[in-house]
Structures are given as C-alpha cells and as structure tokens.
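[audit] Reproducing an earlier prediction to check determinism. Same input, same settings, fresh worker. If the tokens differ from the archived copy the diff job will pick it up downstream; this log only records the rerun itself.
[audit] input (308 residues):
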Amino acid sequence: MPMQTPLISVIVPVYKVEKYLPKCVDSILTQTWRNLEIILIDDGSPDGCPAICDEYAKKDNRVRVIHQQNAGVSNARNAGLDSAQGEYVAFVDGDDWCEPDYVESLLNNLLQNQADLSVCGYFQEDLAGEQIKKTKGSGRLLNRSKALRELVCYSGFQGYVWNKLCRREMIEQYQLRFDVNIGICEDLLFYFKLILHSTTVFYDPAPKYHYLQHDSSALQMKFNSTGFNPKWLDEISAVDRLIAITPPEETTVRRRLTAHKVRACATLIRLMANANMHSDLVTDYQKYIRKNLAVLFTEYTGIPFGTK
C-alpha cells in the first residue's frame, strides 16, 4: 500500500525499562498510521535496553536509535527533537504503550479542526495491569484561554507529555525544549509555553494511550518517601516559572497555579519534617500557604473565601 503522508516523529526516551520496552515499541510499530520515524533515545540505560533498541532498528527502517550518556529524560527528549524530521511530533514513554490508532486519531483531530495541538485521553494502569483511571467525554475545540485552564486543572487534560501531538515547525519556531534543570513538571512547562503560542487546541478524551503508574516515578517516589530529595524542590521552581509567564488576563490559570504551589509547599513541609530536615524554606513555604490559603479554598470549593 502507498505510504501515508505526512511523516510523524514519535520520540521515546529509554532508561531502565527493558521489561516494558518491547510492548511499547511494538505498539508504535503496529500503528494504523504507518508513515512514522520512531526515535529511541537510549539515555545510558545500564540494562538490556540499548541492545533491544538496536534490534528494533535492524528489523524496521522506521526506527532510529540514539545512544547517549545518562543525562535525564528531558535531555533525552531534547535529543529526539534535535534529530526529528517529521512534520508532526508525539512522545511516548518507554514503559507505556498505545492503542493502534493513537497517532492517526491525534493527527485526524488536529487536521480536521485546524488546531495547533491535539490531545487524547488515556488509561492509567498499575503494574498488574489493573485500570486506575479512564478518561471519558466528548471532543471539544478549545481556544488558548480554555486550553490553558484545562492544562493546569486536575480534571483537565493536564501537562503530560505523552498524550499530545503538534507541528514540529511550531516547536522550532518558538525554540521550545524541555528544561533539563527541572525534574518535576518539566512537561507541563513545555506545553504551557506551546499553548501560549497557540490559537486552538483540540481535546478528545477517548483513551488512546496506556500510562503505567509505578513507584519509581518522580512524583510517586516523593509521595511515598520518608527521606528528602532536593530535586523535589523543582516543582516549586516550575510553578513559579509558570506563574511568571501567565498572561495577566488569565486569572483562573493564575489561581490554579497558586493553589498548586500551596499544595506543593504543604507536601514539602511534611517531607522535610519526616526527614528531620531544618531549612529556611519551611518558613518561606508556611508564609506562602498562609498568604494564599484563601486561593486554595476557592479553587476547591468554588466559593470565594469569607462569604456566607
């Protein structure tokens, strides 16, 4: 059959996922949209991942492999972007997998609605394959303001890197890359900036992606830990950057980000206490919480603080 156009780049960072990688890559190779370049970035993985990547490249000429020293997932994704040749770009994590029409559905929704960004729904699953969450609802075209609200809302499509597709030209035009100095919310920051330059976003909650949740993820390790990792402070840095670039008229977005920071401050205070860690940051976080507690109350209840 004739090859479809356009070419779509699927970027997959790979690190310590040899148990899950074959299922992930197989799910991309069997996509109904065949015109793909699949870029596997081996981020210095110490297990069998490098060999698995090379085997796939031998079997299918759509697969390209980049081997690099371990530099983190953001650096790996950036390496994929630097190498990508497709007209459109999507990301898949190496321990997840996709429905057969994941790419085609995202592309069709983007083209049919003349959107700048296409977003799909997802299944969230545990290590046993049990379903934790399944998004549902009808598709909708969002302007920039509504898309930003969805992005920072827990009931919205959020900032995940793996359920979206956009034009590579747009990424290059605005010189967008993942911040290698932030280990939490780096994907949210990337897509927030992209949506700031967008006119419309199409969101179809129909689940096309399978997200595997396990305890080794950055956020899960934070929530389950009795110690303290300084990298967890990255969440505050990321939210501060998001607030700083939020347009003045986007008051709902700013309120949601402020509420996000209040929750993050409270979590960090608890983690520091559990680790018997003393820091001036605790005082700063407590002040921020006291100052913005009303914002958190309003965000969760919809009731302006202080009203009867």
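[audit] rerun output stored. Observation attached for the diff report: The longest helix spans residues 251-274.
[audit] end
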